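call fold(seq) -> tokens
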Amino acid sequence: ELRGTGVNVLTVYPGPVHTDMGTKGIAHYQATAASSLAPWGTSEELAHLVVHAIELGRARVIYPRSYAVSLWFPNLSRWFSLRFAPPLRGAKPD
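ret:
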């Protein structure tokens, strides 16, 4: 609808970012080998990418970039997340 009107929309898909909120949130999960391999980004880099994307009129920012694979392989990404997501601390296994 808004194409050609000068209005742009930017969708931001942030993965884990090193912030107080991220650190406090991850503390509720048990550490696993898979979770320790998950890439984390910085708030500074994410902010830089968002500003740059706005300046260029881009439609999306995915950060850290390695999470972009979920666009191309959503079922594989869903399976991987369900299989390797760390359990909540104190949760009983299925």
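The CA atoms of residues 18 and 66 lie 16 Å apart.
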